Queue: 2 jobs
Job 1
Amino acid sequence: DAKTTQPNSMESNEEEPVHLPCNHSTISGTDYIHWYRQLPSQGPEYVIHGLTSNVNNRMASLAIAEDRKSSTLILHRATLRDAAVYYCILSRNYGGSQGNLIFGKGTKLSVKP
Amino acid sequence: DTGVSQDPRHKITKRGQNVTFRCDPISEHNRLYWYRQTLGQGPEFLTYFQNEAQLEKSRLLSDRFSAERPKGSFSTLEIQRTEQGDSAMYLCASSLARGFSEKLFFGSGTQLSVL
């Protein structure tokens, strides 16, 4: 399975943009890039996913490099509630399911007031 | 709120006892997943169901673990003869598979402590 590499931790100031990087140099053409986040004492929460084009939703934006070997999750204005572990995950159709997600250790984001 | 619910939230048991956890997915979701998470690590896939059929099992799922999803609704995960190494957060997730795009919704998990 293709692997992702993320920094262990990052810090941000409240109300500033945050760019969370992810490297996935062994990505294949059918791999989707997913981002989930996990707040303390909660299960993971879906943030965004994409295949080739940049994606935007109400939570974040996903910028995917042209060669797809890296991507960046962008939080436009960090709030204290965004402090969490952010996981970048590749998934492919396996038996029709993309839900067999291989989580790494993720990036722990701290947000300072 | 009609999210994924898991019961109990916490379970403390003695080594050798059997435990059972329940997961109620979002009602219209056809896929249900079980994951396990230990402290400081990301969640690890255990198994998944499409409706009532269990379609995939991880090698992490030893013979002491069994999961069911009768009638394609709620699911149970049973661990027999628990060991201290089974101590972890057990997470359930559900999804409504549409084409090639799948988004998982996770519950808050059941924290198991084996003494």
Job 2
Amino acid sequence: DTGVSQDPRHKITKRGQNVTFRCDPISEHNRLYWYRQTLGQGPEFLTYFQNEAQLEKSRLLSDRFSAERPKGSFSTLEIQRTEQGDSAMYLCANIPWDGANVLTFGAGSRLTVL
Amino acid sequence: DQQVKQNSPSLSVQEGRISILNCDYTNSMFDYFLWYKKYPAEGPTFLISISSIKDKNEDGRFTVFLNKSAKHLSLHIVPSQPGDSAVYFCAASGGGGADGLTFGKGTHLIIQP
């Protein structure tokens, strides 16, 4: 499978717990994005990486959200002290090179906070 | 502040007829526009795109029209098929940032047999 892979597909957690999502991008696609999608809304940009460098993180929703991309390969998105409002679909996407415009999305990780 | 707007949350079209999905944008710096299709429990998949230097792009049953002066684009699907039932997102890039794409809220297209 050469597409964008996300794990887990669905996570149910209790309020206050920490969760981590993983994204394995298309190999050699150097720009990686995280988006959040809530019900009735389009995907909302959170952050992105150029290789291992996180170039934009001001749109992360709060300081409870953090993302990493060690070695410029897979990426993780962590949410600490989850709240019910964090319930959403978290999408990872790739762009193959700078200047390309078409994002290739993974299937997403759905978070349900009880 | 919604920079990309899809004002129709849903649209119902009979199989075989034309489906027209509309999208408006406010940021005049957008220079590339895309349509994505999303089935439940899947990520969005790229459908068709258009650069701001063009006013039409066609790919099989799908045609996207861009009216820059009106800041409006539309997606035409002809003929509509049952498998076209999905949520369609309009997206734009080039708004001066490096945020990837800015998406609308989506339109749920339902193709009636």
